[in-house]
Amino acid sequence: MHPDRTFHWEDRAAMRELVSALGFGALFAATPDGPRVAHVPIVWLGDETIALHVARGNGITRHLDGATALFVAQGPDGYVSPDWYGLGPNEVPTWNYLAVELEGTMRRMDEAGLIDQLDRLSATQEAQLAPKTPWTRDKMDTRLFAQMTRGIIGFRMEISGWRGTRKLGQHKPAAARIGAADGADAAGRRAIAHLMRAA
């Protein structure tokens, strides 16, 4: 989380929406082997719980059940040239971005929980592909599905801490922020430019 309180993001509904829209992030945990990370797709099970799955062979997996972990979802981002502000020579380059950190306790799920997580995940992602007919596991051979799920382990995170950063140049005068947004847009960073304009 950014140390400048100007950029602290407290709107949990908006953070939850960003995490849902991304559907993917990095899960960090301390292990006896050192810090480890897994890159995982997630779904929400409730307002304070996410579910995910990790490859059984990932070095983090055997240390997760009962551990405190950190899930990080990174939204749009982009470099900001000081020239774009139009404020003179005494500005510095920076990076604007959105990020959400969720901290919580990890709990291993049983097979039914894992299958529910997989079904929710595919339903959420397939819905975004409309008008394509959604894929469901009913299209698979049940034995093959069971074989493949043996390679992953499902977990849920019971969230105890929310930290968000929304760094969009909101500490700059509006004209300078819009100038930077125009520069970011011209550089191909349209998503962060859009957010900067609306900040």
Automatic annotation (TrEMBL):
Gene3D superfamilies: Electron Transport, Fmn-binding Protein, Chain A. Signal peptide: none annotated. This is FMN-binding negative transcriptional regulator. InterPro entries: Split_barrel_FMN-bd (IPR012349), TR_PAI2-type (IPR007396). The lineage of its organism: Bacteria, Pseudomonadati, Pseudomonadota, Alphaproteobacteria, Sphingomonadales. It comes from the Bacteria. Pfam families: FMN_bind_2 (PF04299). It comes from Sphingomonas qilianensis.
